[in-house]
Amino acid sequence: MNGGGKPREHLRRCIEAGVRITVEDVHEIDLIQEIAAELGMTAMIRFRVKSIVPNLWRRTDFSQATVPIDLGIQVYKSGIPQEYLVEMGRRALAMPNVELVGIHMHEGRHHPSTWFREGLMVRYGRLIGELSRAWGGWQPKEIDIGGGIPSLRDPMNKEMPRSEFVLTALAYP
Predict the structure, then answer these.
(1) What residues form DSSP beta bridges with 68?
(2) How many angstroms separate the CA atoms of 129 and 18, rounded?
(3) What is the C-alpha separation between 134 and 56, in angstroms, rounded?
């Protein structure tokens, strides 16, 4: 089950049904552990990671404005920033009622070219290797690259206010 802001009862139903939960928020694993413990079950989770894609300065196809891909990803895509993943993984792996089964990333519509996909997958592979080492040799049962080749942007879709890009750019590492 994907999506942010999952209500407690929805998480409970998912754990009862054995549904794998995609964790997209740094605080979500604590709630999942709590519910799974109450049920006496093990919840299967995976982390949705937010990629940092340096040097992808070309224009994102996701916006009508001229915005570089690396900034567009920070604005448009949900997921856990990389600086939180090592500690979150260690916590999840220590939880008695949680099983971390995989890693998920979705960067969808930013660019249809092979250079974009190749650069993204190289960085994603490196991240998985770094996390495996940081988590004591953990091996994912699933690696989800999400998405596919993007369709052209819907011309009827409203443009995001430029102020969001400016605020994100100012805080971007």
Answers:
(1) 59
(2) 27
(3) 26
